[in-house]
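We give its fold:
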Amino acid sequence: MMPKMLMLVACGGALGACGRFLLTTWLFVPGQFPWPTLLINLLGSFGIGMIWGMGLQQEWFESWGRYLLVVGLLGGFTTFSAFSLETIALLESGRILAGLSYVLLSVLVCIAAAWLGQLLSTDYL
């Protein structure tokens, strides 16, 4: 099963990454608000919600859909969709504080990590 899952993830991931690249290239305007990234994150989050809702407990979803569409396609398109789904799972399970903490930490810590990575890779040090 593992080689099949990897192939599905790889194919979906390639399509998702290409879609992200094309959409970003088409919509990107230097110096402007990052609308392409926001749109990609919104589309990916909506897509993962739709696919998860339609596929849950379906044979096709369990055998190939989860790997090709959720992990591969949407994972390659945006990892924000996985973050959104995990947040919903925490909130729906009644773990409100954990869900809100996850959102806050993910946003703040990831921005700080990106800033630190940029700082460490430039001449600022």
Observations:
- Residues 49 and 98 are 20 Å apart (CA to CA).
- Helices lie at 2-27, 35-55, 59-77, 80-92, 96-120.
- The chain has a mean pLDDT of 90.
- The chain is about 85% helix and 0% strand.
